[in-house]
Amino acid sequence: MSSKPDYWKSPAGIMTRINMLSQSFTYKIVNSSLIAYGTAGGITRWRWASNPGASISGPCAFCDSQNGRIYRRGQFLPSLPAHSNCVCEWELMFDPAEIPQYVA
After folding, report:
1. Which residue among 5, 73, 85, 89 is least crowded, i.e. fewest CB within 10 A of its CB?
2. What is the mean pLDDT of residues 16-43?
3. CA 38 to chain centre
4. CB within 8 Å of 60: residues ≥ 6 apart
């Protein structure tokens, strides 16, 4: 009985997995940096943003249901990416009253 070759053990599968891990790591760094930058800058709200253009298959059902959800300082802030291949990002929500005049 011949067994089917395991794609994830092939050179192409290994490279695909390495690319997936590097993408997840990059999104983790970007999102963690946005939270740190926002906290240091006095941001009080973050918005969950799914990024459908960055994924071949589009956002998953969970991420699509979270898209646009606003989190305030002091609330539990989920860690993004939420799962493997997640391309969701935190968006900083600036209140116009909080923007200094020299920026506006």
Report:
1. 5
2. 88
3. 15
4. 83, 86
